[in-house]
Amino acid sequence: MSNTALVVDDSASLRSVLRITLEQAGYSVIEACDGEQALKLLDGRPLACVVCDVAMPRMDGPTFLRAMRAIGAYRRTPVVVVTTQTSITVREECRRAGAGAWIAKPFQPKMLVDTLVRLGAIVGATA
Known about the structure:
By secondary structure, the protein is α/β, with parallel strands linked by helices. 39% of the residues lie in helices and 18% in strands.
């Protein structure tokens, strides 16, 4: 199993929090500021998980997830959406696009790790 996590969020400070949380849980982390940049990072290498925001410039989370799921290597990659969006409609759009879980910002780092464990994407240490 891969230990690489992809974090996709337009907030540099949140990417930093997510990176630290995931590194403490045993992941190697790659980062993108939006879906467009994230797609360029999908080079076929296995990913343990993707943690993605919804509202981002250039390409939003659901659009990115649909494009990612169209790539064979990433059809089954666990995805957690971390967002301030609370709309049921947006949540359902993310689920249809391929998200397996949803966490509202702000969140406790342990909540992310627990969610990844539930999705079967955790690789080792605890946070």
